Amino acid sequence: MNSIHKAFKIASSEITPPEVYAQRRQWLQLMAGSAAGSLLTAWPEARAAGQAAKLPGAKSAVAGAMVLDKQTSLQDASSYNNYYEFGTDKADPARTAGSLKTQPWRISVEGEVKKPGVFDLDALLKLSPMEERIYRLRCVEGWSMVIPWVGYSLAELITKVEPNSRAKYVEFITLADKKQMPGLDSGVLDWPYIEGLRIDEAMHPLSLLTFGMYGEVLPNQNGAPVRLIVPWKYGFKSAKSIVKIRFVEKQPDSSWMHANRREYGFYSNVNPQVDHPRWSQATERRIGEDGLFTKKRPTLMFNGYEAQVGQLYAGMDLKSNY
Ligand code: MTE
């Protein structure tokens, strides 16, 4: 049993069919030795040439990780973005994020852990086999997408650094560099952009440390080289271009909470029954499906992941913990 399976008391034989093991072995072979090296060298050069470097992932066997909804096109998913460090218009990041330098890249892991450390991108890529996970991502603005992400459970990294008993929350701090990010001149949010999770949310196998999408490394505008995807929460919880992960005792404030505490709470779970103060959250528009007569879809509790994550919030008042 690996660490995530232990944490969730699931035997790996129960959840990992043999073909998935085979795909993982293939992936490990690909990443082993020179292949990993050449992927990493190819990454910035391929991007500069307008091509993407491949980043394959074995189909995930984690419960709920492969939704069957029709996928959003890569074109839509990489041209309609929220990444305020590159501008507040949805079209800005695709236009301006070319200036983001994704290598070298390091994530520093600190705070209430027994083994703090600095992981470079190479070490992060090799930490655990890559999986493909088809997740919905819903934005509090009322639109959603379905994207095949590539990465591995954040729990893999967390167990490696051994949080101590004071580690109740995890804070994610992202890059803030004025030289690379034209949006930092605006005071629309506090920089660096910060997000937070409770430790059990961060340890849930669906919380994905994400390096790619559609079998390729992440486009800069989608949060290259490494971001978080928390599929049952509003998209804004899914911090892009992470440089620091800090384990803390007290609930951290996110940039969105600072910007407007009444509208954006710590939990930010997708909950169609709790309206945003200025609009309903009961329905959503699926990007790519918008025609004049297309009806909005009903939004599902926890974005459709209730069976997997509902128990994390048992007994909580989800109206006051929005
Ligand atoms: N991460 C950073 N660093 N800066 C941001 O502005 N925006 C968030 C989230 N992560 C944001 C961020 C919001 S509001 C959304 S909806 C998602 O990223 C969008 O991710 P996508 O562009 O890959 O769809």
Structure in a nutshell:
With 322 residues, the protein is of the alpha+beta class. Helices cover 23% and strands 20% of the residues.
Tell me what the structure shows.
With 322 residues, this protein is α+β, with helices and mostly antiparallel strands. It has one domain (55-313): Oxidoreductase, molybdopterin-binding domain (Sulfite Oxidase, Chain A, domain 2, Alpha-Beta Complex), CATH 3.90.420.10. It is 23% helix and 20% strand. The chain has eleven helices and 13 strands. It has helices at residues 3-7, 12-15, 18-31, 34-48, 74-77, 92-96, 121-126, 154-161, 199-203, 255-259, 306-309; strands at residues 58-59, 106-111, 117-120, 131-138, 143-153, 169-174, 194-198, 208-213, 216-217, 227-229, 242-248, 283-286, 297-298. The strands form two sheets. Strands 1, 4, 5, 8, 9, 10, 12 and 13 form an eight-stranded mixed sheet that branches. 41% of the residues are buried. The model is unreliable at 1-15 and 33-37 (pLDDT under 50). Bound molecules: ligand MTE. Ligand MTE is lined by residues 81-85, 137, 139, 174, 193, 222-223, 235-236, 238-241.
List the helices and strands and how they pair.
Elements: H1 3-7, H2 12-15, H3 18-31, H4 34-48, E1 58-59, H5 74-77, H6 92-96, E2 106-111, E3 117-120, H7 121-126, E4 131-138, E5 143-153, H8 154-161, E6 169-174, E7 194-198, H9 199-203, E8 208-213, E9 216-217, E10 227-229, E11 242-248, H10 255-259, E12 283-286, E13 297-298, H11 306-309
Parallel strand pairs: 1-4, 2-11, 5-12
Antiparallel strand pairs: 2-3, 4-5, 5-8, 6-7, 6-11, 8-9, 8-10, 12-13
